[in-house]
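**User:** My hope is that you can spare some time for a protein that puzzles me. I have put the entry right below:
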Amino acid sequence: MMNSGIICMLLMLLGISSTGKTRIIEKPLFGARTIDIMEVNKIVLGDAATIFYMDASACGGKLTGVDQQLYLSANGIKYELQEARGVTLPKNMVSSANVDMSHPYFELVFPPIPVSTGTVDLIFKEGGKSLPVAIWDIQTRENRGSKTWKKIPVALRKYKLNKDASWKAPVFKTGRTRLELHLLGYAPKMGEISVSRSGLIPGMDEYTVGEDGIVVAEFDQYVSTEVQVVVGKRIIRVVVDPGEDATLYVDVQIANFRYSSYFRDEYERPVGYYSGNREDLNRRLLARLWTEIPSDELTWEKGESMDPEKYVAFCLEKYNDALQFLENNSSLSDEYRYYSKLEAQLICLNRILYMRANFTKMYQCGIGDERLPRVEKAYFKPLKSFDLTNYDLMLLNSVPFMKMLNSFKTEGEVKEYFGEGYLSDLYKAQVCFPRFGKNLPLKEEQLAVMRTATPEIARLFEKVYSEGNKAWMAHLAKPGYAVREISEKASGEEAFEMILERYKGRVIFIDFWGTSCVPCVKAMKMMRPVKKEFEGQPISYVFITSQNASPLEIWQQMIPNIGGEHYRLTRKQNKYLTDRFNITGVPFYLLVNKKGEVVYETVGFMGCEKMRELIKKEI
């Protein structure tokens, strides 16, 4: 008979163990990711280890956003990294790892995972105030299919592009826009999403997405604009008219595959499906393949001598090539062709803005390298041939225009270069952006500036001022919350006793927070279902902040959506409470029983289950 040592050796060579055969998944599919500088080339799942074979061909020699703290997450269990082969990972995210680009491959070794595991998450960095650095829902089974396709209504899937669609000018009117989003393949671990508006009246709202992946975004709109839906690291752009009721299905997986060198050619489905105004234009934008999406990157032969003037001329040459291509492409509608010509101007401008980054990439320049040019106002002079007075440009992303305008010191300089129109009005409108960014109404001083804009835009901002202030008053009048005043002359101890006295005989859940505290706001959203469970019960929710932690207008803007009882204390009163309860950070919570005794305190949200348990016990 064969001895046991020989038998074990044979089994190892065959890749067989007591629990089954070693599984190898080549180029596994994934759901979404926030890191694009590497691909998972292969996974080997065995009894002794789980090995990820990584392809870092896209990292450019530097592996950033990756350190020794990375781990696998599967079925709620964390699997720590055991070994990295072929690369030396730094101890923290501050440093980067060097990768040999002649062989940009390395291996990550983890403990074995259960055979039944269908997907895993590769977590490089946990999220805090920013997105996690991760690749989610990596398939550990051979299955190249996608379930999301079936969830898209048949009518949307079968829509045929209209070659006769003609251009529609921007619509100027006041309306409440409703955009219903269906995020197919979304998972809560991907975080909140945002819906942003571009142009003269920018704005942004964040939404917590439910398990069904459906979000309804509603916002006041005054002119047609580009709307950006940001899911994880991906931006889905559509053009929306004021007051329309539109629907957008987003295929989260396909949106991520657009940035994967492994899958962008294999999966050529649209990233989304739109139903609403400008439907044909939006369908074409959502259906663009990765090769059709304009890029800010510009490359040339490394041996070629390049200076800023030649670079700008090169950008214009590429712009003219794009125009020629659009003219010769008979498959395009007039609407999409015209939009793409506007977009070509934007890309040319953006490439000039990215001059320094493109020089750095081409020549591998370091800080202080004399070949690195600084972008100057003079480099935009050749763009005088563009019609940047055209208000149709409002339907494009305004960020590149804003970056360019930073090179100009006065509105007069802008007009001298480009004439009076969209760009000069956009320059003026910057005075309003801080208010828009905080969802605050315009003040008279901002309106006074915009009254000097071109007539149509001046009238537009008169409406924005009037309607915005009406909406502000209606917002402050919302039911479901209360502002409680405490005299500034009261001591911190007296202030706290007044708060306890007001809710005597009730359980009090006290939340210390600040308007700029992201975890505070996130926790408030998370606890909403728990608060709803105890509606009608003898419990009060009290939110305490200070004047220095929460600027008045921003506080006023936020609290109607939070609900509950709100106090904004002086710095001195707040310091007393900070010292008394040793508050080292926010959010900080106290639970006070019906006798007025503090029975629980903690820094950081305790989670919905713990919150529910504590409240039940005291009620």
Observations:
- The chain has a mean pLDDT of 93.
- Residues 455-476 form the longest helix (22 residues).
- The first strand starts at residue 16 and ends at 17.
- The chain is about 30% helix and 25% strand.
